[in-house]
Design goal:
YolD-like protein; single chain; about 60 residues; mainly alpha
Length: about 60
Amino acid sequence: MELDYRDMDISELSLNIPQGRGMIKWQPFATMPEQYERITKMIDDQAKCNPPSFDNEILVMIEE
């Protein structure tokens, strides 16, 4: 009796074996759209940076 299905004859295999999903990729399910909006806002906020602060000497040099 062979235990490996790959070596068995096709007539010996059960026809009730489910085929499965195949190569279908999983898609995320947006259960809370507010959460995704907030995460997007947080990512955008991380890209922002404060403007540089100059002292008077540097401002005078820039103006010249």
